[in-house]
What does this fold into?
Amino acid sequence: MFGGLIDRIQYIGAETLRSFQRLGRASVFLLEVIASCADLVLKPTLLIKQLYSVGVQTLIIIVVAGLFVGMVMALQSYYALVDFGAEDSVGVMVALSLLRELGPVVTALLFAGRAGSALTAEIGLMKATEQLSGMEMMAVNPMRRIVAPRFMAGVISMPLLATIFSAVGVLGAYVVVVQLLGLDSGAFWSQPQNKVDLYLDIYNGLIKSVAFGFVASWIAVFEGYDCIPTSEGLGQATTRTVVHSSLAILFMDFILTALMFSK
Amino acid sequence: MSDILVKIRDLHFSRGDRKIFDGLSLDIPRKGITAIMGPSGTGKTTLLKLIGGQLTPDQGTIEVDGLNVHQLSTRKLFELRQRMGMLFQSGALLTDLSVFENVAYPLREHTKLSDAMIRHLVLLKLNAVGLRGAADLMPSELSGGMSRRVALARAIALDPMMIMYDEPFTGQDPISKGVLVSLISELNSALNICSIVVSHDVPDTLSISDHVHFISAGKIVESGSPETLENSKSAWTLQFIHGDADGPVPFHYPANPILDDLYMDGK
It folds into this structure.
């Protein structure tokens, strides 16, 4: 009986050690990536190509999701507020929710699922097919040519995508409550105009999205670079990217919200 | 300038608990084709990665052109690698670039040559491997043998002092294999460089090599010219060259006597 218990404790210990080793490796990796990003100034085409595949190609899912999230929120808040005669506040409610929370968080979750997993799979497959090794032997540092542009593209794209998500969401809300439910257009727009604060709401939302983009891109490129170069290892790495990024985003959102909006 | 390009001394290397090299020492001359042969899993590819500085030995030294590979700074190591070419088993072509751009890649990275000059050089290198006509194809459109030839053109793009070939003949049909065999031999004599061929394909490799080293269990078993090795008295070497199923390398994995295993229930 004690044997089983000791085995279990040993297992937990070994797993914990392994997790910390991995975290250490990921941190060293991050420092190398950040140091390698300086090169992108000399080779902007590498970054532009990745901005297209990481940012532009994620745009459709972000726009569609933003539109529907905004529309659903508008409907729900309209029906809740109309009983109190407060339906004029739908605009500000949707705008604040999107700018502060849903914009950065939902965009980051979609980003991790669409772009993060693709980054992991791409880098992992390059590792499995010896392309990264081949570059090293050609005296080309894959950190600079492969990892840094993808990481940087993720960090730059995320705040832009989150901004577009929020903007499209507000437009979706406008369509639902003003065009379909007949709320006055002036009432819809005037409250957000008065109550949305540039620093407290917009900048904080942007800071969140940059932080989420940083973490999601870091996890994605690290998982690809560190994966076991087999089909099974690659599958596991891609799954880990989505799971770890999503959990990290939700956890960080709580911390950042507590720091930004506590009174 | 020393006649020895690669000098390996007392090399020890393990993967986990498994010892790959156990005090390996060998010299590779500056000119000619040196073959390193041995059964699968003896660490031939690992040896190339150690020479290229992609892996670090547990003990011992590897010198390439008088430089201790594992004591160089990253910048110096990368400078040295510009003078080394390596042909990976899979070709390791960059899949998002065309054949032309793959061969141009090291030139674009390491030289400031004009586009016109790069075009000339790339076409000449591709012509040398017989694939000038495939310049616009993507790697996914090439056969395995063609991929290796493109990778070979890329490996010679910077006119290296040595080329390392990792199992160049594995999985090739007889024609592709014949093309690669003659290409390696012709390129080596045309460029007058050092070629290191790691392989377990005995007849093809012996036919083009000037020096051969047989490795097994982490050590050199025998070295010499192909002729001396074909007339070797070592039972291991003869078994390897002739591909005999049983000999010093036993057919059976170590096990208990068969009767013990069969009648275990009756014990």
Q: What stands out?
A: The first strand of chain B starts at residue 4 and ends at 15.
